Amino acid sequence: MINNQTICLLIPTLNEEEGLKKVLGIIPSYIDRVLIVDGESTDKTHEIAKEFGADIVVEPRRGYGRAMKTGFENVKEDWLITLDADGTYPTSEIEGLVKYAIEKNHKFLSASRFPLDDKNAISQRNFLGNTFITWITNFLFNTKMVDGSSGMWIIHISALKEFKLQRNDWLFSNEIKIVAALNPKIGFHERAINFMPRFGETKVRNPWGIGLKLLLYIFAKKIFGG
Ligand SMILES: Nc1nc2c(ncn2[C@@H]2O[C@H](COP(=O)(O)OP(=O)(O)OP(=O)(O)O)[C@@H](O)[C@H]2O)c(=O)[nH]1
Ligand SMILES: [Mg+2]
Q: What separation in angstroms does the CA of 219 have from each of 12, 134, 139, 144?
C-alpha cells in the first residue's frame, strides 16, 4: 500500500523467463499484488511467476493490447501500474510515481522514457522514430506528450471504466494515451523515469514496418476516430 491505497502491478508476458526473473526479484514491498497476464508462454515464464507468488491469468488470444485489457478486467486495487517483463522499466520508481499521481490528483500518469539516462536503452533509430511519431501525435491531437509509446502507466481504478480501447496489438500503448488525453474524465499527464536496456531477446523483427504502421494508425485515429 502507498498512502493507505492498494497497488496492483500488471505485467503482460510472452516468453520472458529471463527478464521476468529480474523484475519479480526486485518487487517493492508496498506492491499488494502482481498480476501476470501470460500468453501461453512455452518457456519458464509461468513457473517463475508462480515461484514469486504472482497471480497468473492465462490469455491465449495474441497481442499486447489484448493482454492489457484482460489484465484491466482483473484489477481490484486502487491503483494499477503497468510495465514490461523485460526489465526495461524501473520498479523502484513506482512509489514516487503513485505519490505524485495522488498529490496532483492525476488518474492517468504515463512514465516517459525520455530524456534517456542510458543511451543504450533504445537504438538511435528507434529514438528518432519515437520522437517523430510523438511529435505528429501532438500536432494532430493538440497534446503535449514527450513519449507516445511508453509501456509504464499509473491508472486509478476509477478511470479504468472510462477507457474504451479498440486495439489488441502493441498500438494499444499509443491508443491509451490519446484516449486519456481526449477524455476530460481521465486526462493525460507524464513524468520522466529511468529506462534501461532489455533482458532477453526482442521479438521486434521489422522496426521500419512498425514505425509506418504506427504513423498510419495515428492518422487513421485522427480522421476516423474510434
Ligand atoms: N500476454 C501477452 N504478452 C505479450 C504479448 N506480446 C508482448 N507481450 C508482453 O508485453 C510486454 C511488451 O512487449 P515487448 O516485446 O517488450 O515489446 P517492446 O518493448 O515494444 O519491444 P522490445 O524492444 O523487444 O522490448 C512484454 O512483457 C511482453 O512479454 C502477447 O501477445 N501476449
Ligand atoms: Mg520491451
A: 27, 12, 11, 17
CA angle, residues 152, 154, 155, in degrees to nearest 5: 130
Helix (H, G, I), strand (E, B) or coil at 218: helix
Instruction: Tell me, in angstroms, the distance from the centre of ligand 2 to residue 86's CA.
Output: 6
For residues 40 and 60, what is the distance between their CA atoms, to the nearest angstrom?
6
Q: Is 59 in the pocket of ligand 1 (CB under 6 A)?
A: yes
What global pTM score does this model have? Answer: 0.97
Q: CATH homologous superfamily for 7-224?
A: Spore Coat Polysaccharide Biosynthesis Protein SpsA; Chain A (3.90.550.10)
Q: Residue with the nearest Cα to atom 28 of ligand 1?
A: 13
Q: What is the residue extent of each domain of the chain?
A: 7-224
If one counts every other C-beta atom within 10 angstroms of the C-beta of residue 87, the result is 22
- Report how far apart the first and last C-alpha atoms of the chain are (Å, whole number): 36
Instruction: Indicate the pairing of strand 79-82 with strand 153-156.
Output: antiparallel
Q: Determine the distance separating the centroid of ligand 2 and the alpha carbon of 204, expressed in angstroms.
A: 9
User: Taking 90 as the threshold, does the pLDDT of residue 202 lie above it?
Assistant: no
Give the closest ligand to the alpha carbon of residue 57: 1
Q: Of all atoms in ligand 1, which is nearest to the CA of residue 11? A: 27
Q: How confident is the model at residue 205 (pLDDT cuts 50, 70, 90)?
A: confident
Atom of ligand 1 nearest to the CA of 198: 25
